[in-house]
Specification:
Number of strands of chain A: 4
Largest sheet of chain B: 7 strands, mixed
CATH class of chain A: Alpha Beta
Strand content of chain B: 35-45%
Radius of gyration of chain A: 19 Å
Oligomer: heterodimer
CATH topology of chain A: 60s Ribosomal Protein L30, Chain: A
Strand order of the largest sheet of chain A: 1-4-2-3
Shape of chain B: globular
Structural class of chain A: alpha+beta
CATH superfamily of the largest domain in chain B: TolB, C-terminal domain
Order of helices and strands of chain A: HHEHEHEHE
Number of helices of chain A: 5
Helix content of chain A: 40-55%
Largest sheet of chain A: 4 strands, mixed
Distance between the termini of chain B: 25 Å
CATH architecture of the largest domain in chain B: 6 Propeller
CATH superfamily of chain A: OmpA-like domain
Number of domains of chain A: 1
Helix content of chain B: 10-25%
Strand content of chain A: 5-15%
Chain lengths: ~170, ~450
């Protein structure tokens, strides 16, 4: 019996170690929920981890036309939907991550991604989302979700992803 | 002292230390102890030779070389006193590759070279008949891990020794020694030293995004950071002691500084938004970069410690990628304030921006030539990106590349070459080319982007 408990304890410990290893801060992966407890201007809310993940799952990615940072009608509709989600769940902070497709030069894409995330941030605050919850990060063309070199891939990469955290 | 002829062999210890001992022609130890009148006589003699020499049909390559006539150059295999660790053909190959890349030389085929004994004066008639206008002979010997190399540059028509240099160092530094000699050859022939002892920094692509450096010709590739995150846009400090770069170490594109001696890095500018495309001023006393902390990316000037001095550009456009003129008085940059990304210039002291590019609806990544007269940049042409140059007066636009898609140009410190990225081989590799775009070769073994060329360090 005790050897079984030992094995069980070891397995639980191993599982914990693996989970902690997976929470490495430095590895950047596109469009996945970030680790909890990031520092920022808005204090930690009363939400549990589960609620944050539910909010994250509801939010839509906002897509952009080539070389554009203004919101198209489709983008506006997605942003409107997101604003409603965020106003219903008033806690939790959001980082608007701006991205570009691989065409275009690296530095200008950094500026374009920054502008895209600001466009979304402005639109959301215009619809009543508390601006203290929102911040932006541009990744330029450095973090595509689709590594393909075709129109379909590029369209998926021109986006703003709203990442939820505590 | 006759500065124009005779073997001029100066010993240079080429060690890893930053200040190898050079004794220049004018810095001879005994010069200052002579009485003034004799000094004046020597000075007048020296100046006479310097001023009169060009009229004698002296070996000189005009920098701009409008006819693009290449100087026929012969470089037979270097000769060793005894067989050893180094191969004379390989050593000569390093020199030939350096000079070939400038686009200024027609390097003659060795098959036509007459045999040449190690220390003897060359047979100029034979070389002349072989078609050579210049001739470089090299000899070397190794002992243990020590290397002594002697190189001589001859004017074949005038049957004259133009340059003689002798280097001592370690065998493992043989590339550095040959590059140093090639720099002197360029200085002798054009008045401007070569850039063959310089390095290129870049950030890798795909799996690793770390900062790398390599010799300008791709050798000695070194990983400089272990950030495990995305890095971008390195820039060398003018004194070669540091590299600044944008990194996502703190989950935001911040500006970081890498000390090249300790390989430690610390954050320099961590404003919210982007801290991107940072470039040292030519005197190293300022950094220009793009910050979006005030809402839209604008060009700012900050101190080398990261303190904001002023905002240089204004308006509704996205402004990024500043580049300094060599005199430090003007900055060119990319802005889409007019609707599409174009290149503008603005006085560093403040003033109205002037638009430089009009041809394409996408012009980015301006880089000011160290010679001051040209800007290199990336332009979208027929759906692909190409490296272009344009005069600072907005005239003489040239498209230098046409294979694949090409971006991120940067100049060598002598303004003779441009480094850039190209996907023409299937991967995005770092390439270099001469400033006319005649010779274009890949140099990096790993995919990379945003290359930066170090300054020349003496």
């Amino acid at each position: 019996m005790s050897s079984r408990r030992l094995i069980l304890a070891t397995l639980v410990l191993l599982a914990l170690v693996l989970v902690c290893a997976g929470c490495s801060r430095k590895v950047v992966r596109p469009d996945m929920p970030g680790p909890p407890g990031m520092a920022g201007p808005y204090g930690p809310g009363q939400l549990t981890e589960q609620s944050l993940q539910m909010v994250q799952a509801e939010l839509k990615v906002i897509y952009f036309d080539y070389d554009q940072y203004a919101l198209s009608p489709e983008a506006q509709a997605a942003a409107q939907y997101n604003a409603d989600v965020l106003k219903r769940s008033p806690n939790g902070r959001i980082v608007a991550e701006g991205h570009c497709d691989e065409r275009g030069t690296a530095e200008y894409n950094l500026a374009l991604g920054d502008r895209r995330s600001r466009s979304v941030l402005e639109y959301l605050t215009g619809l009543g989302v508390d601006p203290r919850r929102l911040s932006i990060v541009s990744y330029g063309s450095e973090l595509p979700v689709d590594p393909g070199h075709n129109e379909a891939a590029w369209a998926k990469n021109r986006r703003v992803y709203l990442r939820v955290s505590q | 002292m006759n500065p124009r002829s005779g073997t001029h062999s100066e010993s240079c210890h080429v060690l890893p230390s930053p200040q190898p001992s050079h004794k220049g022609r004018k810095g001879r130890a005994g010069f200052q102890t002579r009485p003034y009148t004799l000094q004046a006589v020597y000075l007048i003699l020296f100046l006479t030779f310097v001023l009169v020499a060009p009229a004698r049909g002296e070996l000189v390559i005009p920098f701009d070389n409008p006819n693009r006539d290449k100087m026929p150059l012969a470089v037979p295999d270097f000769v060793s006193e005894a067989p050893g660790a180094l191969n004379g053909s390989a050593l000569a190959g390093i020199l030939k590759n350096d000079l070939h890349l400038t686009g200024l030389f027609k390097i003659l085929d060795n098959a036509s070279a007459p045999s040449q004994a190690a220390a003897a004066d060359p047979n100029f008639e034979i070389w002349s008949r072989a078609g050579a206008q210049t001739l470089i002979l090299g000899s070397f010997r190794t002992s243990g891990d020590e290397l002594v190399f002697e190189g001589r540059l001859y004017d074949v028509a005038l049957k004259k020794l133009e340059l003689g240099k002798r280097y001592t160092g370690k065998i493992r530094d043989h590339r550095r020694i040959i590059h140093r000699f090639a720099d002197r050859v360029m200085e002798r022939l054009t008045g401007i030293p070569g850039c063959f002892s310089t390095k290129i920094a870049f950030t890798a692509e795909s799996q690793s995004r770390e900062l790398f450096t390599m010799d300008f010709d791709g050798h000695d590739l070194r990983q400089m950071t272990q950030t495990q995150t995305i890095n971008l846009s390195p820039d060398w400090s003018p004194d070669g002691a540091a590299i600044i770069f944008t990194s996502y170490l703190n989950q935001n594109p911040d500006l970081w500084k890498l000390d090249l001696t300790t390989l430690q890095y610390h954050a320099l500018s961590t404003q919210p938004g982007i801290n991107a495309s940072a470039r040292y001023s030519p005197d190293g006393r300022h950094i220009a970069l793009s910050l979006s902390a005030k809402g839209t990316p604008k060009i700012f000037i900050i101190s080398p410690e990261g303190h904001i001095i002023k905002m240089l550009t204004s308006g509704r456009g996205n402004d990024i990628s500043p580049t300094w003129s060599p005199d430090g008085n003007t900055i060119a940059y990319t802005s889409d304030g007019a609707g599409t990304p174009q290149i503008y210039t603005i006085p560093v002291g403040g003033g109205a921006p002037a638009r430089l590019t009009f041809g394409s609806n996408y012009n980015t990544d301006p880089k000011w030539s160290p010679r001051g007269d040209l800007l290199a940049f990336t332009a979208r042409v027929d759906g692909r990106f190409q490296i272009c140059t344009i005069g600072t007066d907005g005239k003489d636009l040239r498209v230098l590349t046409d294979k694949g898609s090409n971006q991120d140009p940067a100049w060598s410190p002598d303004g003779r070459m441009i480094v850039f990225t190209s996907n023409r081989t299937g991967q995005r590799l770092i390439h270099i080319m001469d400033a006319n775009g005649e010779i274009q070769v890949p140099v990096s073994r790993v995919p990379g982007k945003t290359p930066a060329w170090s300054r020349n360090l003496k």
